[in-house]
Design a protein that fits this description.
This protein is mainly alpha-helical. α4 runs parallel beside α8 and α9 runs antiparallel to α10. Belongs to the TPT transporter family. TPT (TC 2.A.7.9) subfamily. Its main location: membrane.
Length: 340
Amino acid sequence: MMEEKLWQWSVFRSLLAIIQWWGFNVTVIIMNKWIFQKLDFKFPLSVSCVHFICSAIGAYLMIKVLKLKPLIAVDPEDRWRRIFPMSFVFCINIVLGNVSLRYIPVSFMQTIKSFTPATTVILQWLVWRKYFDLRIWFSLVPIVGGILLTSVTELSFNMFGFCAALFGCLATSTKTILAESLLHGYKFDSINTVYYMAPFATMILAIPAMLLEGNGVLEWLHTHQSVCSSLIIIFSSGVMAFCLNFSIFYVIHSTTAVTFNVAGNLKVAVAVLVSWLIFRNPISGLNAVGCAITLVGCTFYGYVRHMLSQQPSGTPQTPRTPRNRIELLPLVNDKIDDKV
C-alpha cells in the first residue's frame, strides 16, 4: 500500500514538474515574440540583456538570500579561464535565439532548434574527431529530412532569421561540447550555472546593445504608446526566463532521461500550437508534416542515445568504429538549451 502511494506521488510529481516546465518555457517564447511583434520593441540584444540581468538577480536571491540552493564554489582563476568563455558562447546562443524570433515565426524557430542533435554530432565528429555508433547517424536522418521539408515549405521564410536560428543551434552545440572540458570537475545545476554566467553575459552584451540599439530604444521610449505597461511586459519576460531555469532544476530531479526526452519534444509541439493560436502565422500542410517528422526524429534519436548508454561497457562496437576509440554518446541536452 505504501509503495503504491509512493509510486502515485512520484508520477504526480513528474507530471507537475513537466507541466510547470512547459508553462514557463512556452510563456517565455510567446512573451518574447509578443515583445518583438506586438509591442514593436525590435531590439533582441536589449531583450537578452534584460533576461540576463533578471536571471542574475534571481540566482543571487535563490542562493545568497533565500538559500534554496547551496553555492558551488569556483576558484577566481577558473571564473575567467573556464566560466567566461562558456558565458561568451552562452550569450551568443541566447542572442541568436531572440534574433531569430524577431524575424521568423515561433513554429519555424522551434523546429530549427530541433536540429541541435545533428549539429552536435557533426561538430564532435569533424572538430573533436569523436566516433559514433551507426545507429546514432541513422537516427539523425528524420531530423535532417524534417528540417529540410519545413524550411522549403515555410510560408513566412526569412533568410536572416533562418540563419540566426541555425547558427543558434551551432552555438548551443558548441556550448554543450565545451561544457564537458571547461566545466570538468564542477557539477553545476541550472541555478548555479546562471549565477556564474549571467553576470558575465550581461557584461559582454551591454556595450554592443547600447551601441547598436541604444538610439532605437530611446526613440521607442519617446514614441511608443503605453510605455509603462510595455516595460512591465518586457521585464516580466526576464522574470519568466529565470523561473524557467528554476523549473529546469525541478524537472531534472523529477523525471527519468526517457521521460524528459519525450516531454522535451512534446514541449516543442505545445509551443508551436500555442504560438499559432495567438499569432495565427500561416502554416501549410507540408510544413506541419515536416515539423512532425522532426519531432518524431528527435524522440527516436533520444531513444537510441538512451539505449546505447544502457549497453555494458564490453558491448562490441560497429565495424566502422575502431576498437581502440571509445564510442562517445552525443552531449546534446535540452536541459541546458532552455536556460535564460
